[in-house]
Write a structure and sequence with these properties.
The chain is of the alpha/beta class. Helix content is 47%, strand content 14%. Strand 1 (18-23), helix 2 (27-32) and strand 2 (40-44) form a beta-alpha-beta unit. This is CoA ester lyase.
Length: 316
């Protein structure tokens, strides 16, 4: 099977809502995560795995990645930086497991991405793996990384998304963390803008507090800013993130009303329509079309794996 065919069989990047980090050496947590609902599962070799257990974590890659893919999840790993002693060892073990995605931590310059790209390509040849199917997702964890985000995002054709950190970013800024997250508002908005300009998916930072309602509020805010994906460190957060980042019936119905009103106005020779007191012009109509297209894309993807009963309600 070609690399293109293999890539077509995985959930498209714009439909990957939830990216879950998991302790790299904890077999029980890694196995259990397959049923939590997160779209992407990440075996984490850096902060979540103490150096003494990294060798143990490397021995789990093939088994865990196979189990995740069998459950319909994307198999990813965050290795240590290639500049470290552990990074190259992590990458070789991960590559033997045929990951879908490799995440690069603490990325603050394009050269790091180029080096990882070259290392992956070399191992694809050595291990006789399909060329080019493995994606790279650099992690932006510092002010320096944020201002270099555009260069990082375009440093390799393998880069499909960037992921924003919360705790390390706040520490780099010497900012005080709070459940409301206001200290990272500018960072998150700037990050979203940089990713949009570079044409890659922006993965919002994780909500690292236990409050589910706080998670819901932060995810809704992310959605309003244009995020379509969010990372997480708690498996129980996956269902909330997936719900908030999937178009619901109400938003779909409103989008359809917007399009109906706009199309009718255009037919009548007007440049705009009014829906719920909001002036609907071409950009608003296009946004409504994108939302409906996103909802249809989820339906099309889901229909590949399960056929709902004939009497099941349709989301749209």
């Amino acid at each position: 099977m070609t690399a293109d065919a293999l890539t077509r069989d995985r959930r498209p990047v714009h439909l990957r809502r939830s990216w879950l980090f998991l302790p790299g050496a904890d077999r029980q947590d890694l196995s259990a995560a397959a049923t939590c609902g997160a779209d992407v599962l990440i075996q984490e070799f850096e902060d979540f795995t103490v150096p003494e257990r990294r060798r143990e974590a490397r021995q789990l890659c093939e088994e865990i990645f196979t189990a995740w893919r069998s459950a319909g999840r994307l198999a990813a790993a965050r290795i240590n930086p290639l500049e470290s002693a552990d990074g190259p060892q992590d990458l070789r073990a991960v590559m033997a497991g045929r990951p879908d995605i490799v995440l690069l931590p603490k990325c603050d310059r394009a050269a790091q991405v180029a080096r990882l790209d070259g290392a992956i390509e070399a191992l694809e040849k050595q291990l006789d793996l399909p060329r080019g199917r493995i994606e790279i997702v650099p992690n932006i964890e510092s002010a320096r990384g944020l201002v270099a985000a555009a260069d990082i995002a375009t440093a390799s054709p393998r880069v499909t998304a960037l992921l924003l950190a919360s705790e390390d970013m706040a520490a780099d800024l010497d900012a005080e963390r709070n459940p409301g997250g206001s200290e990272l508002d500018y960072v998150r908005q700037r990050f979203r803008l940089e990713c949009a300009a570079a044409g890659v998916t922006a993965i919002d930072c994780p909500y690292t507090f236990a409050d589910i309602e706080g998670l819901r509020r932060e995810t809704r805010q992310a959605r309003q800013w244009g995020f379509k994906a969010k990372s997480l460190v708690t498996p129980a957060h996956a269902s909330v993130i997936n719900e908030e980042l999937t178009p619901d019936r109400r938003s779909i119905e409103k989008a359809r009303r917007v399009l109906t009103a706009f199309d009718a106005a255009r037919i009548g020779g007007a440049e705009r329509a009014s829906v719920d007191g909001h002036a609907v012009e071409l950009p608003t109509a296009n946004a409504a079309r994108r939302l409906i297209a996103r909802a249809n894309a989820f339906d099309a993807w889901d229909s590949r794996f399960s056929a709902p009963p004939s009497d099941a309600p349709k989301r749209g």
